[in-house]
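User: tokens in, sequence out, please.
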């Protein structure tokens, strides 16, 4: 399998870490959707990261859909999702919060870095930052309910996505997410980043 995209994207990174944790062999081609637009387009005309080219040469995109395919490929024994329905719902809630935080972080980056300064819309920026902070407050509360990882001693997809999201936001817009307001997420992320699958996909 071939995973395409830069590891500074939380969506690419969550897929790369998940593939490693599930024992899937893959190659990583760090092609930028900006600097390598034409090279990326030659593989996926939509130019969306992450892109995964399966062993059957099927081109998949969107981290959630890619991981859905991989989950079916590996089966229950290597799955990063809980088996029982109530636990799955709780896991999906955490994943949704982390992905929402990622999405809002990306919107902030685009608003601040791609829009001309004289056209920056502060009310929109304030709203997006508020949504991002609410997502992280909910994640902080969810982590407080469970010592260890989501699955107890075993790291699962909600752990991967939450840790990746926090590292991304703190790297890109640290002034907007004060570490002192989220001590559990800080410790959670630091613990995850020491694991091989995270260290090998650092940026």
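Assistant: Sequence out:
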């Amino acid at each position: 399998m071939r995973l395409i995209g830069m590891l500074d994207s939380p969506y690419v990174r969550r897929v790369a870490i998940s593939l490693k944790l599930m024992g899937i062999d893959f190659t990583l081609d760090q092609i930028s959707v900006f600097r390598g637009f034409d090279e990326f387009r030659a593989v996926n005309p939509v130019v969306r990261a992450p892109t995964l080219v399966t062993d059957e040469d099927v081109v998949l995109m969107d981290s959630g859909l890619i991981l859905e395919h991989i989950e079916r490929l590996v089966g229950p024994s290597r799955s990063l999702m809980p088996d029982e329905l109530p636990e799955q719902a709780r896991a999906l809630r955490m994943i949704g919060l982390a992905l929402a935080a990622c999405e809002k972080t990306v919107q902030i980056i685009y608003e601040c870095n791609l829009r001309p300064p004289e056209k920056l819309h502060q009310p929109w920026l304030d709203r997006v930052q508020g949504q991002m902070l609410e997502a992280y407050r909910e994640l902080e509360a969810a982590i407080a309910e469970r010592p260890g990882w989501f699955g107890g001693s075993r790291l699962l997809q909600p752990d991967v996505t939450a840790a990746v999201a926090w590292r991304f936001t703190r790297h890109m817009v640290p002034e907007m997410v004060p570490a002192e307001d989220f001590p559990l997420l800080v410790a959670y992320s630091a613990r995850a980043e020491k694991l091989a699958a995270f260290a090998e996909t650092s940026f």
